[in-house]
User: Fold these one by one.
Assistant:
Number 1:
Amino acid sequence: MIRVAIAGASGYTGVELIRILSQHPQVELKAITSRGQAGQRVDKYYPSLRRHCELIFEEPDPDSLAQRVDLVFTALPHQAAMDFVPELLQRGLKVVDLSADYRFRDPNIYENWYQPHKTPELLSRAVYGLPELHRREIHSANLVGNPGCYPTSVILALAPLLFGKLIHAQSIIADSKSGVTGAGRGASLTTHFCEVNEGFKAYKVTEHRHTPEIEQELSGVAGESVTITFTPHLVPMSRGILSSVYANLKNGISESQVSEAFQSFYLDAPFVRLCGTEVPSTLQVRGSNYCDLGWRVDERNRRVIIISVIDNLTRGASGQAVCNMNLMYGLPEGLGLNTAPWQP
Amino acid sequence: MIRVAIAGASGYTGVELIRILSQHPQVELKAITSRGQAGQRVDKYYPSLRRHCELIFEEPDPDSLAQRVDLVFTALPHQAAMDFVPELLQRGLKVVDLSADYRFRDPNIYENWYQPHKTPELLSRAVYGLPELHRREIHSANLVGNPGCYPTSVILALAPLLFGKLIHAQSIIADSKSGVTGAGRGASLTTHFCEVNEGFKAYKVTEHRHTPEIEQELSGVAGESVTITFTPHLVPMSRGILSSVYANLKNGISESQVSEAFQSFYLDAPFVRLCGTEVPSTLQVRGSNYCDLGWRVDERNRRVIIISVIDNLTRGASGQAVCNMNLMYGLPEGLGLNTAPWQP
Amino acid sequence: MIRVAIAGASGYTGVELIRILSQHPQVELKAITSRGQAGQRVDKYYPSLRRHCELIFEEPDPDSLAQRVDLVFTALPHQAAMDFVPELLQRGLKVVDLSADYRFRDPNIYENWYQPHKTPELLSRAVYGLPELHRREIHSANLVGNPGCYPTSVILALAPLLFGKLIHAQSIIADSKSGVTGAGRGASLTTHFCEVNEGFKAYKVTEHRHTPEIEQELSGVAGESVTITFTPHLVPMSRGILSSVYANLKNGISESQVSEAFQSFYLDAPFVRLCGTEVPSTLQVRGSNYCDLGWRVDERNRRVIIISVIDNLTRGASGQAVCNMNLMYGLPEGLGLNTAPWQP
Amino acid sequence: MIRVAIAGASGYTGVELIRILSQHPQVELKAITSRGQAGQRVDKYYPSLRRHCELIFEEPDPDSLAQRVDLVFTALPHQAAMDFVPELLQRGLKVVDLSADYRFRDPNIYENWYQPHKTPELLSRAVYGLPELHRREIHSANLVGNPGCYPTSVILALAPLLFGKLIHAQSIIADSKSGVTGAGRGASLTTHFCEVNEGFKAYKVTEHRHTPEIEQELSGVAGESVTITFTPHLVPMSRGILSSVYANLKNGISESQVSEAFQSFYLDAPFVRLCGTEVPSTLQVRGSNYCDLGWRVDERNRRVIIISVIDNLTRGASGQAVCNMNLMYGLPEGLGLNTAPWQP
């Protein structure tokens, strides 16, 4: 049994981790931390968890965790993660970090879009936790930077086509739409029911911080520098991301070559399902770790449109984090994650 | 392994059964039938099920089912069930029927509220499948009439108080609110998104057919005839029922006696969670087989208000049906049903 | 032209007042106040109002308002209203107060459910602003206590039956369901989209402060003391209240007597629409000042069930406030309020 | 007073027309037709309209209409419009047609994307009813082809930039998202609440029939042939369209030139509101005839992103139709349409 803790367990990614880990056959969840809720039983805070988790939120304490667990999922805000993760690593713990703090290889990019990095030396040790791209490195990592939700959906949509050099790398536009859990559980006017309900909006147009994360990974796959346009939107629903991704096809590339690229790239991927021209809906992956992909070629102007759907809390955060833990311990990638999506 | 089939598997209770059974450790799902979808793969029809179920809908054929399975879940419309269930029983199959056709002991009541019954003689053999009331009879039954969704939520709210004779049996009002999956998957103006969304309404006031079903079971528990007022409402959400149940307390009955009645009645119930005065929300049971119950006494006019929440598709239909199957085979009541609710 | 101001204009009832007043043919909206937003243009804060209102939020100042306006709508929190309203009255202004501070005739009841009252002597001068009950007194009032949203829906459902002595006054149960705007615009976990969406819950069971307000008015109509059980619920939608109201019919009272009572009581009411046994949905009154009423008799246990729907922001707050202003100035009750509801 | 009728008045655009026309000071609505609902009072069918419209649906009869009205709004399905509109024109009536049948100048384009056209000779007489582009021609038209909902939002987003030659005409991608009223009121699985709610999906990728309509108008403005990629999506909300439109800026074009283009193009447009870099939400135009536009330049790859929002039923259909009627009769463009949007 792997003994694990969750640091920062009171938010939506935290409770999603608890939900998943409570049914994982090889995990014992030993501790959950939360500064704000310390001392409170988690099933008082989330009554859905009664009979599934009886832990009490505790203050984060690296020494105490080191005595009790093997691995920590850190679901802390950016910057708070940077303070805490090194403490855990020093004590010999493995870490899957759900913040952005360990996703970048180049500290300059991180610092341009976020803030100064306190432990840039750790960035080269950290592995970007997208199994379809970095399965082997994750297997031997002690520190995994768990991907952002939007990047997961966009990178998986494009990797096969950039890898196969089927599209122009500078022509990419990713128009993404997310449910509201992506904004976290903090109370704000932005997430007030009546400000979201019956409305649809774009936000952070041209300036969302997931842009460089997507570009880092796509550049790696493409073998050349990729710059994209990325626009996130807010959908009046709780869970789910759909990314509509556009790119110009290179001369002579056909729809069947596009399809073959997807099929060969994801041949053994347990959590990618290919839908071909039947483009997917977010409903078909809700509550699961799947990324479902569909695509069509617009022959009139030689573009390919890829539709990529995930559950932002599961595949876009906590499910993928558990996947990464499985790989770090040599377990089957999908252990504890193989339940069917929630429909309807 | 129990070999099972689902008849009428293309609706919402059907797909919920497939979702649950696909992760049940003691079940092999061998066949699914649907007249309308016969010949189609279920994971084409419900893409969420890809990699979880590869069965093809087939025409319902009792002989063929009898050769391949031990038990059939019949998720057919009222009246269609009456035609099919006897065929299955004759061939030695066990049946859990999700229609109303085998829920009533008295054929007259059924006929007053529904239509003529074709096999009234079977009603005395059928067991009403509410485990908290009829666990033992279910264990030895071949035919279980699986309870309606509203009745499940209302009966569980009142059984302890009527059993303990704490309330006036003729004072009961049940004001229930359901998500839209309760109306089934058939396309109609009633379930059109824009007719439901941003609205709230009551329907079938004073004439909903779940009324006599609730009364039958409550009368049994109370040991006297119970007549209730029942009003269903439609909530703009997919899953969940909340019933607000009102009754007049008998003289001298205190809030603590009410609490004790709930605690002793549900002492060993794996799927009832008692919340006391912290009344529950439907969100905390979504996707699960739980019924969560809270209550308060209004001392100003000596009424007790019980708030009861379930997921109408799981506890109110398919989850409870699997529970009944477990009991029929002597398995633990919660086998295959022990995942945490979906939140958020 | 009536010159008016709105104090506390930045919340949902404030912006609803601006929306309505901006199309009122006899009103000039001269000032809007908000401590939090002072200095900001309202159409920056609510972009929907561009080209409809160009006012700038100002600090509340009774002297300044007295020089510019005739009447003030105070949309302040309870207690803040008590501080501000007397200042306005002293300067000769008329006031329609949307808080609870001037709704009660008996200061003891207010103090039992709210807090100490600072100007109890004003309570006898204030008129409860429900036109269907107090049209004449409103006409000559300087201070109107605008009714709460739930009370508006419940009182209108019961007044004809209590006035006609058709029901037992102690048998009343009001089960009410409200959209989320009823909780105001303040950011909190309670109104977070993902805590509300896809869920349904009751709150403040047995202890909601609208209870004594309903009882005061019903007692007045009935000519005897009325004590009710009132349970509010939260619906995942923005606007609308539906109240399901239950009462025991007196001996010999028939459904047609019930219908006649409604028809004669609301004979000349421009904003009550009677639906008979076709019980109404909240969607049919959205954005309007209507209260639509339907009813049915449950002969099996001699109860009447009344279904009452309003838009909580319009009829339950700002529309009714404008109605009261119209009456205070001898204008037609519906002036500026006669647009059709929003459907779909 | 203009005497008008609505043919095909039972759908969502029909009831929206009734809502708007019922408060228009220069219109008398004399007749509404519907084959399906003939004989029924409209306020029985749409209870929201009680006290606002007491008409009875009648069978469509051109002779009868010609005796009673001056203008007909035809809200019929494509193809049905083609049969009925010529009958009306022959009898000297003016027509605003809300179908696609009279939007195209080139019958070949219509026939490629729709079906054979029965009266192609009328196409040259019909005017495309987008006031910002064709105000003068509408003024003298007898037949207006009212624009599609998506085209309205996309064309208004791009016209200033194509007119000013600031963008590459072949680089345009329009990623549009619509509420569910856009799918009409017909019952189908596609519009079932539980198939839409909590999900987000794209549909008709590369093949939606609004594509050539957008291209026709953009080509006209640009003075060159424009081919676009257009992807529609379905948002779980009732009303609203947001289009995110992408184009490559020509060399040397700056963000301020983009802003100036919008400002000069829409200088006198009563129903276009410019938001600059504060990109708009659909909520701020709900229930109104506004198109709100915001834009940003992505300097990293020299693209402009325009966010365009409308209410699909008002600006995208019925409100714009009334606007066109106003222009046809020399009335102020906004007469009867000047109420503030619905928020929240």
Number 2:
Amino acid sequence: MAGNTFGKVFRVTTWGESHGSALGVVIDGCPPGLELDVIDIQKELDRRKPGKGGGESPRKEPDQVEILSGVFEGLTTGTPISLTVYNKDAQSKAYDHLQNIFRPGHGDLTYLKKYGIRDHRGGGRASARETVARVAAGAVARKILAEYDISVIAYTVALGDVATSKRNMKDINLNRLHCPDIAAAARMEELIDSVRKKGDSLGGIVEVKAKGCPVGLGEPVFDKLDAALAHALMSIGAVKGVEIGAGFRAAGLLGSENNDAITPKGYRTNNAGGVLAGISNGDAIIARVAVKPIPSISLEQDTLNLDNEPVTIKIGGRHDISAIPRIVPVCEAMVCLTLADYLLRQKAVEN
Amino acid sequence: MAGNTFGKVFRVTTWGESHGSALGVVIDGCPPGLELDVIDIQKELDRRKPGKGGGESPRKEPDQVEILSGVFEGLTTGTPISLTVYNKDAQSKAYDHLQNIFRPGHGDLTYLKKYGIRDHRGGGRASARETVARVAAGAVARKILAEYDISVIAYTVALGDVATSKRNMKDINLNRLHCPDIAAAARMEELIDSVRKKGDSLGGIVEVKAKGCPVGLGEPVFDKLDAALAHALMSIGAVKGVEIGAGFRAAGLLGSENNDAITPKGYRTNNAGGVLAGISNGDAIIARVAVKPIPSISLEQDTLNLDNEPVTIKIGGRHDISAIPRIVPVCEAMVCLTLADYLLRQKAVEN
Amino acid sequence: MAGNTFGKVFRVTTWGESHGSALGVVIDGCPPGLELDVIDIQKELDRRKPGKGGGESPRKEPDQVEILSGVFEGLTTGTPISLTVYNKDAQSKAYDHLQNIFRPGHGDLTYLKKYGIRDHRGGGRASARETVARVAAGAVARKILAEYDISVIAYTVALGDVATSKRNMKDINLNRLHCPDIAAAARMEELIDSVRKKGDSLGGIVEVKAKGCPVGLGEPVFDKLDAALAHALMSIGAVKGVEIGAGFRAAGLLGSENNDAITPKGYRTNNAGGVLAGISNGDAIIARVAVKPIPSISLEQDTLNLDNEPVTIKIGGRHDISAIPRIVPVCEAMVCLTLADYLLRQKAVEN
Amino acid sequence: MAGNTFGKVFRVTTWGESHGSALGVVIDGCPPGLELDVIDIQKELDRRKPGKGGGESPRKEPDQVEILSGVFEGLTTGTPISLTVYNKDAQSKAYDHLQNIFRPGHGDLTYLKKYGIRDHRGGGRASARETVARVAAGAVARKILAEYDISVIAYTVALGDVATSKRNMKDINLNRLHCPDIAAAARMEELIDSVRKKGDSLGGIVEVKAKGCPVGLGEPVFDKLDAALAHALMSIGAVKGVEIGAGFRAAGLLGSENNDAITPKGYRTNNAGGVLAGISNGDAIIARVAVKPIPSISLEQDTLNLDNEPVTIKIGGRHDISAIPRIVPVCEAMVCLTLADYLLRQKAVEN
């Protein structure tokens, strides 16, 4: 039942298959009078484009976005904003041999069993290509956040077994992995090379930080801000875990270690990750997501075909080695969408 | 804006403050013709009752639930089910000295800043007592799951720095910590004793397992089953992280290690935690949550008072040392609520 | 699927059966800091009480409301407000003879076919008694409207074939039918007497007027203010038609007659009924509803029993002759709920 | 706040301005496996096309629809269906002289006051052209209804002061006004001619009939089927009233006249209009809507300009004389959307 809408006040509804005609999003609830240019959206899309990341021979998509409604003379009008990106380089034929076989780690089998039918071309709706629409919508949300001086940035803190030991924010844009630790980034690149040669793939961890968020966002008890962020981030295909602030590490701390003392200058520490009792506390909001390795690998795997017979499969074609770094702007987009929605939701609470 | 409803088809709306007259829940969307007795709900409430867990001198609440509507001659009628639990042992006076001071790690400050007013008595709506209503509703959801032969069980897999090394399911009910590893449970009890003496508190990790779930639950792309579970579990007050299947460990695996091979007998492994592309795959659904240490400790902490002056606070009174084990039935309840909702949502997809 | 919630930001969820233990409502999304006393609600409930209207020997219910949550020291806290009214005078035995027979004009048959089960006692959830919860919630909504100086008043403009020819607002509270035309009210009383003697019943028309509404309420294109009002009013059991402003009369007017000219002092006429293009225009909002005659009559009617056999039925017992005037505060309540919701929805649009 | 989505399970989100690049709709929640061809949608769009109705020199739009997602090899896949219609004949220049003046009876002023900005070109989002998206979505809903053998047909029962006295269904397609009374249709044409000469415009009444609806649709107490239909139909721009079954006439009937007796062969009459207690009863569902006269007239009207100065306006250009008959397929579409949604909602109730 209807799971393609995110948000309650700033509502985005996405649509589109990997190898269909186009993908897009309708944004309903964007406040009027916001300056919005197609460039604002295009530059975010360019960040997640094939070829920007660790993949070798990815699909070539210009991913050119069009604004079809909701903007008049450069300003949003309060009516729905429709954004569309046409697919140009969908080589559906490359997937013909996969239509009778279920790729391990992908949604091929669950989609077929759920819907009784599936668009096998490039994973259809289950493709990571679906995130084009998220990033496009996130760009609009980011414009709203900018009015509140809220910034959202994501970066790689682990790739496979290589973890960062630093958070040098200025390094993030100095390496294609968006890693705030240049030395770690170099080791990650070596790891990518070696894994690529083996025909295998890698996972990792992405951290997202939102700065400048006002106190008060979050709607207890079920729509707490952290619950909404967990929902938003876990809805990204490759994500298998979400934590806020100290996260899983908090489970091993004592209360006296985990509590963030309150001082006249603010909280002394930020184990809470900027959210207390489900409401933003004014500190930086920190979330981390666990990204599983790309399931498409060229190593041989056991699986079944449509006739339920055991077969083996090697997946060639145009695949990335890891969802990182292309997932980085997607994580940012989901946090932007969540915060924009909660900023608007909070308006109903305030006088 | 209105965050006290969970679910889209099986919808629960909870209400009530820790020291108000009562707490309760309205369940809208429960299918008609389901056998429902007050005992079904009472027995789940009894599992989360004060005194059942690791706390020493907790509040004594009978937590007696009443069914006020929606059931006729022992069967649900399809109309809203209203469940109410009156507060009997609310010693509000015990909180009088806390009304002008913000307890670290609690929502005192964020609630006040968000709403401009707060019911300080026992934490008001931000109290863990709010979960009474979740557990009551979860008991009804569990009745629906039973019709599909789905079972949901949660258990403690870590308390502080003591982790379980076994999953002996039959041991879970043999120790009050609901730990599937008797030896670990003993060490956990020792840890509780030592931490209690220090006046500190503990966090931990709870795992939830749902067995018997049919293939097909989950509504991509935003209402994926794992996204909904993350939302549900992260909405519990003390939870700071949620992971599905291999979770954060998956970030360090290779694709060839993480992919679950498909065989005629089913998936060979379950790193997916029962969810592929956001849709249940028929395997056990596995989620783990990070539970932060109880913020109420009797050690001295720095904080502010209402006049924004630095003060110190020691919190005495009737507090548990850890949210574990009383959070265990709450985790089960949230998973039951999610699965019941998605079972009903799936009906709209099927012919 | 879950139809017992009204509103998107100011959300009310009602529950309760005519002869169950209690009825009530949970209001989620009420702004914090609003003064709210139980008297505010009780006085509205007293207006719809049995005995207040045209019925002769109605059920005697004190309809005493309790506020169980969401209010602290006389102010709303932003958390859910739970209101409960216990049933005291439910004479369920009086309905025993009706459990095997379907009353014409009632929901007996449709409820049974929809849900496969029904609480036959007094109509269960389909009873007009359900509106107790609407009126209680409406009283809270009215407090919000008061902060904007918006007033909502309903009155009887027709009963059976007797129509009012005046709108003397000050007369409304001078007759129990809430009719703004004293002479018409007298004729309506005569009609009631004569119809009661025949054992028959009456319908009528109620008009609702909201004054002081700011320009800008309404969310095109589907949640236009008039669409929301139509939804709200048509959801009242006995209502079979809703019109705004000139309504059905507009169908016969020329454009030059129907258009409201705009002048520096405002609109010259109000055929629009205060809503243009789905958005309030600052003029009084005017809606009228057609109320069908009470279906419970003591005249003999043809119907079926549970075995699908033709039988006749005469319905005695404690019934009103007309839903008017007791429906008057219910109409007001639904308009108050709608306007409160749209006032809060509009906040997300404004800067 | 986000009012461009209709439906809860079968959810449609429309977008687009009269003179923007395109209009469209995203349908989320359409069941998979449904045969859907672009022709199914195009043929409905052709019915509401400019030039089909009473207008003299209307805009010439091919209104060619494209399916951009959600359909694979001729079948719906359960993923969102995106439909787009590009605007081809948008003569925005024709509206330049209107950008500083508020047309009486239109949303020019309310839109500006609500949003602080408006797309004046052709009425922007408030244009009747918005209904293109409704009709496109309605065509998909109709395919679902066809699987249940439900038909939905609308027809003109009054134009200005000319009312039909017959319901000869076979005549509906024999006259361009979709009137089931050929003689009345002839008089209506004469009326159109005379009103056109005067530069004025006409309203009317449209009736919609849905046959074959199963018993049980409707979700009390707020989402009753008649409440949903009222919402759906009143959300159409020109509609000022909605009634079900006997509607406003019921207000003047006695209970003994209005009640539909129940017989072994079904209900003897259908004053209920197919809905009892908010639930479909198996009889034909009958709704009527009051359509106001087109506000764009070439007669001189008083109004204001952007500087709040009194001015007069005569609206020339390409306008219809009446929203009838082009509103007829729009009314059908809204009823189709409502019924499709409620058919799917009912699945969650059934076993």
